[in-house]
Amino acid sequence: MEKNQFLHEFEKSLDSEELLEKIKAEQQEEEIYEEKMFSQKLFIILLTSILMIEVGIVVYALQASQKIVIVSPEEKALLEQQQAEKDIKEAKRLSATSKRTIRYPPLPLATWEEAETDLLESIKLLEEIPKDTTVKKEANKLLAIYRQDYQNLREKLILEKTATSKLFTAKKSAIEASTIVQNPPHPLDVWQEAQTKWQEAINLLQQIPPDAFVAPEALEKLDLYRINYRAVTTQLERGNKEQGAGNKQ
Fold first, then answer.
1. CB neighbours (10 Å) of residue 2?
2. Is 183 left (phi over 0), alpha (psi -120 to 50) or beta?
3. What HEC string does the chain produce?
4. CA 84: distance to chain centroid?
5. What is the value of pTM for the model shown?
6. What is the DSSP letter of 134?
7. How far apart are CA 208 and CA 212, in angstroms?
8. How many CA atoms, within 13 angstroms, populate the side-chain half-sphere of residue 52?
9. Does residue 180 contact residue 198 with C-beta atoms inside 8 Å?
């Protein structure tokens, strides 16, 4: 009887221990779940805060961009007058800069283009000055002067651009003429083509005005190209003679 009671008590103790372990496991699972839920809530709160900040920035930017400033006609006229005075001052500065840039010609094409840019900006500023401002009359007078300055500048710029283009094309033709006669002997038609290209290069150089910026280089190239032209012509004449002599035989 005592033995059975002992066994019964032992089984009860085992059941109690299993129950305790089960309770502990459930408690641990509950703690893990609560920690997980807390982390999720914290993440949601943080994400919501970030979104609210971004939305606030966007709303503020929209409000700022859509903010309407109402000014009276008098205030508007005053603002236009102040801006017109600034613009006419800047237009004078740009015109003076343009003139200084081209003070000592001959000058390269890029320099003329730089001066043109400044003068065009000056003219644009004067054209945009409102007619109701006190400086409009002065702006119109300056416009007449600056537009004439622009015409003069433009003529010189076109001259330099044309001269630069002709020099470039002449060099290109000379390179082609030199290339096709490398590694002789060649048939007569090759020497004829080279002669034609040298002549084209010489003609282009002769068209460059003496007051152009590239004129000194053009004269230097012209002397060299004439020498090459004569050499090719001599070779062509010799070939024609040899061919004629061969035909007689």
1. 6
2. left
3. CHHHHHHHHHHHHHHHHHHHHHHHHHHHHHHHHHHHHHHHHHHHHHHHHHHHHHHHHHHHHHHHHCCCCCCCHHHHHHHHHHHHHHHHHHHHHHHHHHHHHCCCCCCCHHHHHHHHHHHHHHHHHHHCCCCCCCCHHHHHHHHHHHHHHHHHHHHHHHHHHHHHHHHHHHHHHHHHHHHHCCCCCCCHHHHHHHHHHHHHHHHHHHCCCCCCCCHHHHHHHHHHHHHHHHHHHHHHHHHHHHHHHHHHC
4. 30
5. 0.67
6. T
7. 7
8. 6
9. no
Single out the residue of 173, 221, 222 nearest to residue 200, CA to CA: 173
Cα separation, 76 vs 81, whole angstroms: 9
The C-alpha atoms of residue 80 and residue 131 are separated, in whole angstroms, by 10
Q: Please say whether the beta carbons of 189 and 197 come within 8 A.
A: no
The span from the CA of 61 to the CA of 65, in Å, is 6
Alpha-carbon distance of 34 to 144, in angstroms, equals 84
Q: What is d(CA 46, CA 52) in angstroms, rounded to the nearest whole number?
A: 10
Q: Tell me the per-residue pLDDT of 75-127, one tens digit each, with 9 for 90 and over.
A: 999 999 999 999 999 999 999 999 999 999 999 999 999 999 999 999 999 99
